[in-house]
Amino acid sequence: MSDATLAAARDVGRDWIEAAYYAEAEAAAEAQWQGIILPFLRIEATGIDLAATMDLAAGHGRHAARLLPLAGHLHIVDLHAGNLDACRRRFGSDPRIAYSPTDGCTLPVPDASLSFLFCFDAMVHFDSDVVRAYLRETSRALRPGGHAFLHHSNEHRFPTRDFRQHPHWRNFLSLGLMAHYAAKEGLAVVRQQALDWNHDGSDIDGLTLLRRG
After folding, report:
1. Starting at the edge strand that comes first in sequence, how are the strands of the sheet with 142-153 ordered?
2. What is the per-residue pLDDT across 3-32, written as a single tens digit (0 to 9) for each?
3. What angle do CA 49, 35, 118 make, to 5 degrees?
4. N or C: which end of the chain has fewer CB within 10 A?
5. What pLDDT is attached to residue 20?
6. 3-state secondary structure at position 56
């Protein structure tokens, strides 16, 4: 991994060390799960297998709490040790859970070991080089037929501006770029959807479901 890509990951990550946002986001998690995530995934109809699931950039575990009842084994992964500690306090020593740090660009699991990768409300801030790095890692880590659900930026109006000047700090990306990067890493798009996170018709977010062939 290049030093520049790792630096870009850590630049974004610094904003989420012990951030007050985690408590605020907890209140919205159930509505997002029921109103956004599950309708998009269509788990049974799509054939998503949650036997070996990863929650990437898990924060304080608000979505891990909803994945755990569905998953056989859950990898909780985050850049920050404090977030992993918060998840340990939340879930304890449940034998179905593994807690692992990431350097911000790689997935701490062996090749072809995951059936499902989940990332919600984090990748929207990632630099496009970091997104591409994670897509490469996703292709490596997923089993054949495995799926990845990514909530990412669709804010592509300001390609040269610092992302902290964008609405909700969305980094530069688009649905089209996500599909393009994914194809280069051998991942097929199952479906994509724009998401109006800002509630103004700007569709600054995107949802993408990928499958490894």
Report:
1. 97-101, 73-78, 52-56, 114-119, 142-153, 205-212, 187-195
2. 889 888 887 877 767 667 888 889 999 999
3. 35
4. C
5. 78
6. strand
Are 64 and 91 in contact by the 8 Å Cβ rule? The answer is yes
Q: Smallest Cα–Cα separation from 145: which of 63, 211, 91? A: 211
What is the predicted pLDDT for the residue at 13?
77
Question: Which residue, 141, 145, 122, 123, is CA-closest to 132?
Answer: 123
- Distance, in Å, from the CA atom of 77 to the CA atom of 181, rounded to the nearest integer, reads 22
- Of the chain, the end-to-end C-alpha distance in Å amounts to 24
Distance CA 201, CA 184 (A): 30
Dihedral sign of CA atoms 105, 107, 112, 114 in order: negative
CB 133 within 8 A of CB 5: yes
Closest CA relative to residue 188, chosen from 151, 139, 154, 140: 139
pLDDT tens readout for residues 132-186: 999 999 999 999 999 999 999 999 988 888 888 887 889 999 999 999 999 999 9
For residue 115, the tally of other CB atoms under 10 A from its CB is 21
Q: Please tell me the distance from the alpha carbon of residue 188 to that of residue 124, in angstroms, as a whole number.
A: 20
